[in-house]
Amino acid sequence: MRTVKLLAASAIAAVLAAPAAHAAQPPYPEKPIRLVVGSAAGAGVDIIARAMAERLYGALGQRIVVDNRPGVAGILSAELVLRSAPDGYTLMMLTSQLLVATAVYPDVKFSLEKDFASISLLGTIPFVLVVNPELPAKSIRELIEIAKKTPLRYGSAGTGASEHLSAVLFTSMTGTNMLHVPYKGIAQALTDTIGKEVHLTYAILSPVLPMIQAGRVRALGVTSSKRNALLPDVPSISEVVPGYQTLGWASTVAAAGTPEAVLAKASAEIAKVVREPQFSEPLKALGWDLVGSTRAELDAFRREQTKRTGEIVKASGANVR
Predict the structure, then answer these.
(1) Where are the domains of the chain?
(2) Which DSSP helix (H) or strand (E) runs through 74?
(3) The CATH fold of domain 126-239
(4) In 3D, which of 203, 310, 207, 293 has the Cα closest to residue 250?
(5) pLDDT tens digits along 145-185
(6) Are 132 and 253 in contact, with CB atoms under 8 Å apart?
């Protein structure tokens, strides 16, 4: 009887203690959050990171400190995040370029799939296939016809860069054979396209748009599956080459092992911010298609992009040692 009473008392104590223990857990976030970005300040996805950080401050009541760690296409930023505690106070911008880099560099010490938990897909942006205006091609079909008869050269931001893989996919799907000329960045590739050192290149929409508008290069197609609102008269390459698609994209992730409740709250708040006009309208003006996905949707997107990127990297033969 004494044992029964002791067990009953223990059970009652546990029930009474449970709410107190639950209440003792600090709300998230209770201190500033670091958002690690694998590019330099003012470049690429840093623009999105800073806009999001500003909007999240109002939603979460804590500062979001953007920490720029450029180097090796974002690999250095990922290594930094994995050295931090998986508590939700260190987040990372996972981009298409980092995904490509982990497929190209053979000695990466981490797995994007296993070591990073999804939070939200922020948005996507297409690349644009542009040619020197003196090239006779006025359309994708004409470019394919010329490329099958005349050796063409295309520039890229470097072997294994997203622009390179966009071209590899195009040549493999169209049966064309073009010479790849890698540069140390897309700016030089564009300069040499204008200067006729190469015939064409692929570039992310936002930086190349002024050149297109000024007539310095001619846009033949965008790499997204649909046309972009900033270039409504420029077709999607998939209109001529069914199934063709490559994208630049940006998402938020955290180290695996971060508490589920923290991930869920971060995902909900970030998705809400992405849908706000104050956040979305300026980025739409740069060519971004905003998403604000759930965690599950980002998981599915990452799986699809990992498979697709791996196949293109294999076809390209890109391998940086």
Answers:
(1) 33-124+248-316, 126-239
(2) none
(3) D-Maltodextrin-Binding Protein; domain 2 (3.40.190)
(4) 293
(5) 999 999 999 999 888 888 999 999 999 999 998 999 999 88
(6) no
Q: Structure tokens of 280?
A: 């979305």
Place of tokens 């979460």: 60
Query: For strand 218-222 and strand 64-68, is the pairing parallel, antiparallel, or unpaired?
Result: unpaired
Question: What is the Cα–Cα distance from 221 to 237, expressed in whole angstroms?
Answer: 5
Give the pair of three-digit tokens for residue 300: 């599915």
Dihedral sign from CA coordinates of 287, 292, 296, 298: positive
Question: pLDDT for 177-211, tens place per residue?
Answer: 899 999 988 899 999 999 999 999 999 998 899 99
How many DSSP H helices and E strands does the chain contain?
A: 12, 10
Q: Spell out the CATH class of 33-124+248-316.
A: alpha beta
Asked if residues 116 and 77 have their Cβ atoms less than 8 Å apart, the reply is: no
Strand ranges for 185-291 from DSSP E = 200-204, 218-222, 247-255, 289-290
Q: Which long-range contacts (CB under 8 A, 24 or more apart) does 188-196 make?
A: 188/155, 189/155, 189/156, 189/157, 189/163, 190/130, 190/155, 190/217, 192/155, 193/130, 193/131, 193/132, 193/155, 193/217, 194/132, 196/132, 196/134
Dig out the tokens for 267 from the structure.
């995902």
Would you give the end-to-end CA distance of the chain in angstroms? 73
Q: What are 75-102's pLDDT values in tens digits?
A: 999 999 999 999 999 999 999 999 998 9
